[in-house]
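Exercise 7. Given the components listed, write out the predicted structure of the assembled complex. Treat all entries as one system.
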Amino acid sequence: MKRRSYILATALSLLAARWASAVTFEASVDRNVISLADRLTYSLIVSGAENASPEPPEIKGMEVVGRSSSTQFSVTNGRADIRLRTDYILVPLKAGQVTIPSALLRYQGHTYTTRPITVKVVDAGSALPPPAAVEPPGRTERAAASSEKKEPSRLFVRSLADPEEVFINQQVTLDFQIFSALEIGDLDYTPAPAVGFVEMDMGNPETGTAVRDGLRYRVTEIRKAVFPISAGELTVSPAELRGNIYLPRGRRPGQDPFFEGFFPDPFNYERRPFVLRSDPVSIRVLPLPGGAPASFTGGVGNFDLEVEVAPRRVKVGEPFTITVSVRGIGNLGSVGMPAIDLGEGFRTYEPEIETKPEVVGGRIGGTKIFRTAVVPLEDGDLQLPDVVLSFFDPVRKSYEEARAACGAVSAAPAPEGERARLVSAPAGPSNREIELLGKDILYIKTEPGEWTRPGESGRFGPVFWLLQSLPAVVVILAWRVGARRERLRSDKVYARKVGASRSARRRFDRARRLLEAGESREFYAEAHRAFARYLGDRLGIPSAAVDAAGVRARLEGLKLPPGTLDHLRECFETCDRVRYAPGGGDRAEMERFLAMAQELVARMEKIKL
Amino acid sequence: MKRRIPILLAAAGIAAIASTAAAAAPPDRDSGFRRGNDAYRLGEYDRAIALYREVLDEGWAGAALYYNLGNAYFKTGNLGRAVLNYRKAWDLSPGDPEIGKNLEYAREDLREDTSGLKAGFWSRVRRSVALLFPPAHWILAACAFYWIAAVLILAAIFLPGFRRAAAPALKALSVLFLLCVLGAWLAWGYYHVPRAVVLSSRVEVLYSPAVEATPAFVLHEGAEVRVIRGEGAWRQIALPDGKSGWVPSDSLGLI
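Answer.
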């Protein structure tokens, strides 16, 4: 094994010695004129140098978006050769002349340089001829000498008109095609303004693929139908397409090149805006030939007629409807109402028109329905004339006629009054919809209305919110008052307890007046009632059962101020003594007793029972 | 003479205060508004815009002012600013038929009408409630029901015979009150989320607030968006259907 390695190393050393003597370093580009939407391949080729590392120049006006390298060994007539090729994929950043400076190769003490290369970058739209005329401009000598295939543009648009010679009101299909072999997005399509034509949409864009010059394109087709309204040489202006090209930024560090194609990184793209314009399209419009029949109403295409009359049995004065359906291929907008000459015996109204356009096999067509209300003015079996429509067929290049029979309508006589009204009724349309003439914004307001400060609208101040608390406070207070009133009404014991103090005060006042009057017996009786009833009310004892022993028994065990029970006993004793003793007490005695009784009530008020 | 000095000083003070007040008095906003209208009538829409804006710059706002300003912008072909001012007018006077019509008409010309995007259930409810009445109206209605309920409660407290009749009325009032509070909350949520209108003719909405960021989608002039947050000169916006991204703040006009 060691022996084999030695031989191989020796052989390679010998070969290296020979390569070193014939080192060449060249630079080339795949073309000298590119568009902003294209990519340029810049190649550095080193021959006769092993492990060489060419240094690419810094290119102003272009950006490197990809790099690949390959090495080729060859031995011819005992002479070994090694060829290292490094391709750089460049994207132009702006239009104009871009000079790629010399690249550098330092190898075994020698310095090799390439010649500078000038590339012309043109605007994307102008640099992209139609695919049939795709000719990569400015091929380099190297490319011309090589057998490599020409590289077509990767993004271009084109406009087609079909056909390019038409009659007035004949359909021309404008087809705007976007060919893209690049990742493009954010497309903003501005259709070509078709002055002198009536335009009609032909549905949503269609997307497919196509292979041209070995390159697979995604093709988007945007179609619209136009109908010339005057004869002569008309031109459809260029359509414009704006968007962005998404270019891969190159391999990210650590990404395995094998998986690069299988798992494209959606975030590692760079956007380049582009604008493409199609070429203007000329259309030759021929006038319609003379000799149009009287029933020609302007239709160009191929149409059929269908007529429906309903109801077929009416009274004089009652309307029936003639429905004429014009169906076929062509601009229905130019088809007028086929004339129906009903004569004097009918009154006709303005027709109601309904158009149902459709696209059939790439041609605009559909159905146009004319509904005419007709009122018979005479009775009998009334034969209606045929409906005739003439149109110009651009294929046959002649006027054609479509005809449909209306049949007959049976009109019964109307009552006399109805008939009189019919005869006197003014002629003219009725029950028509209001004709809309245009649309615009409504007029300005003449009054400024309510002023506000920006950002202050709809805000309520603190006074407002404070005011909102008022009902709640009032309701709470009212509820408490109501509850108290309810208890006073339903709970007698509670009511006596609550009213005890006030009633005692009232009685003491009355006792005072008796004292002043010198009526001692009545005074003592009233004073006794005052404190005895007070005690009864407070302690829940019936008034008649209040005595010293009973009150004392109820008060024992309660926390009372010292001397209260003695005070109580003294009050009862004094009262009993004086009330039943002859002559009663003197004024000083009465004063003392009143004070004692009031003191007792005052003391009891402080006690929580 | 000594007695007259304080009187003279007081008079001088009053005169000074009066002159200061006169100097600080706001210019006649009504007159500015009417001069704008005159310019509009003459078809001088740019001058009308300048005159309406003068009133705005003085710190005054009004539904009629925003509406007329929107009209003037519309006439000059500035669709984004027209929609912006109609929306401001609508917020101040929701339900105004003229504002609604013009806003609808202006939106017909937009490249994309974000107001018509399919929004989430709650967003649609909030929008419907807010467009029914503004938050202030919901609050006033809730207060009215609350006051009526308070009066009924007081009557029921003091008139026991009235209680039986008051009970169902109070239940109905409670439900109405709660509905109005809910309505106020939903409408407030709709109007107090910052909203903006795209003023640039075309703006790419990016995944992050950086020039080199990947674009997510494109919006055009007049599109209405919700503003979620800001970072420097960038604003994160969202559409009713949930799409979100970053745009330069100068491409938006806050409603």
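Discussion: Chain A is about 25% helix and 35% strand. Chain A touches chain B through 35 residues (CB under 8 Å).
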